[in-house]
Structure prediction request, 95 residues.
Amino acid sequence: MTTGGGSAHEPGRSAWIEVIAEDAARGELQELYDEYRNAETGTVDNVLKVHSLHPETMRDHARLYRTVMYGRGGLTRPEREMIGVVVSAANHCHY
Prediction:
């Protein structure tokens, strides 16, 4: 297992979450990593990898994201993306 970092609520602080590396994944986790692998980078985004200890939450996270970003609603896709960018910037998060 490896660890990965990310931004905490305060600038300059880090949160470390234990994750299972892509090359160490087996079974259901390996299948999910294969399904959610980023086509551009060839890797699984850290925002999903943080769920590696509990693969069912990875599936739920991806499903929620798709519903929020692509589901029916009153906002266009660019408007949804813009909201995501503003929230991420306010939280000092590069995602």
Observations:
- The radius of gyration is 15 Å.
- Residues 69 and 75 are 9 Å apart (CA to CA).
